[in-house]
Amino acid sequence: MDIQLPEINFKPRLNVINKDQIKQIHTASLEVLERIGVKMTHPRAVELLESAGANVDGDRVRIPSWMVEDAIRKAPSRVVLGKRNGERSVFIEAGKTWFGPSLDCIDYLDPMTSERKRFTSEHCRVSATIADAMPNFDWSMIIGMADDQPPDIADRVIVRQALTYCEKPLVFCCKDTNSERDIYEMALLICGGKENFEKAPTIVQYSEPISPLEYYDPAVDKMLFSVEHGIPLINFPAPQACGSAPATLAGTIVQGSAESLSGLVLAQAARPGAAFIYGAFTTIMDMKTSVFSYGASEMSLMVAAMAQMAEHYNLPFFGTGGCTDAKFCDPQAAVEATFQCFSSAAVGTGLIHDCSSWMDHGSLVSPAFMVLVNEILHNVKQYMNGIPVSAETLAIDVIERVGPGGHYLQDEHTLANFNKVRYSELFERTIRQEWEADGSKSFEDRLREMTVKAMAHEPAALPDDVVKEIDTMQQHWK
Q1: In whole angstroms, what is the distance from residue 468 CA to residue 462 CA?
Q2: Better pLDDT: 13 or 6
Q3: Fewest Cβ atoms closer than 10 Å to its Cβ: which of 78, 150, 178, 467?
């Protein structure tokens, strides 16, 4: 019997706040900006905001609700990023989730010896190579800080390594506008010029207000440089419940949202239509240790709520997932990373950073953890594909063909569909005798082998003339 059915797809979806709560959080965020405002001393930014309608009293800038809502309307609802070859590869818009690693770690965990050491530019090469090799990392970051380089140019050396050894879009931060200008010039050179860059930017500037509700002048300089040069801008505060934000989850979300939206207002005042990415690293202060926790379940809950706020505003979103407070690739690391990645994917919007390389509350990079989280993301993405329903997948004719008491092993339907199941190279399913015959490899052994293989990956090389020109640029970095 031939049953004609359209294919029906449903993507699993998680909501952690409802429409009424979203409205209340939005209203409270507007109230914070209008009644309390932000502390800002940057002369040009203050002038831009005051000219646009903000109320300025000394270093306090209060932003009326209408300005916030006007800025939301002006901002693009999607941002498209490109690989260095010009391919438009990351579409930051509602319903799509893109995973990437972290930035600014100070230590490196050697995958062979488990020795912890300071992060260097060579470690950036290794980490960027792995980010390029791992199929579930859609974009990359600068990952760590180059302890082996002069402090005045270390930020640019790290970006150079990241752009050289990974072809994917790069989210970066740097110390000042001199650095950002040099990074921008590198990006233009590598992608083939300003016209190509504007079609699909290859770099994104990461910026943070200081929680609670304060801006640092050099950070504002970089924000304005980004907006004026068409570099997409992430404005990503890090409010810590009980420390730099209220002890309640809702209060922390309100403050984080207000802080991010204040940057949106500035960006749109400087250049209407500027590409802006909303979000906040909302987590808790662990009151037992006072650390800024990267593994708390409350962090995932608040990040999910922030993602729903971004969807409400129709703004691109930057979130957090796949990190851990653990010091090694142990069960704690795996559990925390899995929970965060699944939560982020199920909410379903934006760039999700810290997948794979933020350990020990944001201080440690581990190549092995990068490989482990890539494997976790395989499972998460497989789950998020849902269960397509069609005549082909319902398989009524197949069930009739095999009949009671038969088997499906040699049926053509099985041959056509068995490889849609996810088969892991890391998580093993063999019986004990076969596992022993294969060398009795432990989980750690298999992870180490996969990490070594990923480290041996060879990203596409930059053209010789581009490398030569970057060498010349680096000689003039200050």
Answers
A1: 10
A2: 13
A3: 150
